[in-house]
Amino acid sequence: VMRDLAAQVELLAASDRTTVLLLGESGSGKGRVAELIHSHSPRRTNAFVEVNCAALTPDALEVALFGQDAAGGDNGHEPHVGLFEVAAGGSLFLDEIGELSTHLQARLLRVFEGKGFRRVGGTREISADVRIIAATNRDLVNEVNEGRFREDLYYRLNVMPLYLPPLRARSREDLV
């Protein structure tokens, strides 16, 4: 199983625009696999940026991902650059994507549709040349059926799903 997974990771790394959805229990190595995909891809010389979608409030995550324009324009505040801009030309790893609010799901879908994004409070459209690697331990099909996850976003993410088996299902050689 792990040799097959390694072969899939190698193929995905070569295809630097394919969105990857990593599925598996907590602790199964989804973050490490995301790093491997990036580090073996043509995007490896650019940033690998990771964000845990469950670790921030929806408002804080929105600012973290998309940035924020200077409030009021002339009050001395600098704009905040978001992780989509930081990861330009590289990869953005969205860990625990199943935790996204419906509002953020809609904003992310807009990026997938090639329409770019706007910083929070901004009006200028910014393009995003970023490979998205997402991970979840949730059953997204069930989340879609229950109305907690957008079906259209699920299909955008599910281009190339990779299931990582739990550690208890791996052989000793896999764990070394």
What does this structure look like?
This protein is of the alpha/beta class and 176 residues long. The protein contains eight helices and five strands; from the N terminus they run αβαβααβαβααβα. Strands 2-3-4-1-5 form a five-stranded parallel beta sheet. α1 crosses α2. It is globular. The mean pLDDT is 89.
Key features of this structure:
5 strands, 14% strand, 36% helix, 176 residues
Concise summary:
The protein has eight helices and five strands; from the N terminus they run H-E-H-E-H-H-E-H-E-H-H-E-H.
Helices, strands, pairings?
Elements: H1 2-14, E1 20-23, H2 30-39, E2 48-52, H3 58-66, H4 83-86, E3 91-95, H5 102-112, E4 131-136, H6 140-145, H7 151-157, E5 160-163, H8 172-175
Parallel strand pairs: 1-4, 1-5, 2-3, 3-4
Helix pairs in contact: 1-2
Distance between the termini: 15 Å
Tell me about the largest β-sheet: 5 strands, parallel
Q: Estimate percent helicity.
A: 25-40%
Q: Tell me the series of helices and strands, N- to C-terminal.
A: HEHEHHEHEHHEH
Q: Biggest sheet: strands side by side, in what order?
A: 2-3-4-1-5
Alpha plus pi helix count: 8
> If you average the pLDDT, what whole number results?
89
Shape: globular
SS content category: alpha/beta
Fraction in beta strands: 5-15%
Return residue spans where pLDDT drops below 50 for at least 5 consecutive residues. Answer: none
Number of β-strand runs: 5
Computed Rg: 17 Å
